[in-house]
Amino acid sequence: MTASDRLDPGIFEGLAGVRLAMRRFLSFSEAALSQAGITSQQYQAMLVIKIAAQSQIMVRELSQQMMMQRNGAVQLIDRLEAARLAIRIPSTTDKRSVLVALTDHGETVLETLARAHLGAMLENEPLLVESLAQLRRLAEIG
Question: Mind giving me the DSSP string for the chain?
Fold first, then answer.
């Protein structure tokens, strides 16, 4: 590798900045979720359920959105139900299908966590935006 083939040092700075912003956010997220008594996977599933049409989703679609096998999604839903965060609802259009929705408790927990996550994300915005902008500038030059 010649000197002309090497990446601009600013690329490394930009990548380090993006990773630092992500690590800060993920560290906050894990602590907030742990304090709420839910896992990262449960929180992600709750977000997926919330944004689905009518805030209800079929198990098959949830497993696809979560990038997991159907049996794993079923186990995740079992844990959400046990924690009173979600419920299964028989589909009115397809008797073989089951929909998953958040309970009132699940809605409250999700709202609280989403507000906290939004705040933490916005705290890291300046570093993330500057790092991504630096990477874009350098990628366009190179």
Answer: --GGGSPPHHHHHHHHHHHHHHHHHHHHHHHHHHHHT--HHHHHHHHHHHHSGGGEEEHHHHHHHTT--HHHHHHHHHHHHHTTSEEEEE-SS-TT-EEEEE-HHHHHHHHHHHHHHHHHHHHTHHHHHHHHHHHHHHHHH-
| 61: nearest Cα among 72, 48, 43, 46 | 48
Token pair for 19: 């990773």
Structure tokens at 131: 């790092």
Q: Encode pLDDT of 63-111 as tens digits.
A: 999 999 999 999 999 999 999 999 999 988 888 889 999 999 999 999 9
Return the ∠ at Cα 19 (arms to 64 and 112), rounded to 5°: 60
- Token pair 């996977």 is found at 41
Does this model's pTM top 0.85?
yes
Q: Measuring CA to CA, which residue among 3, 15, 18, 37 is closest to residue 106?
A: 37
How far apart are the C-alpha atoms of 125 and 33, rounded to whole Å?
21
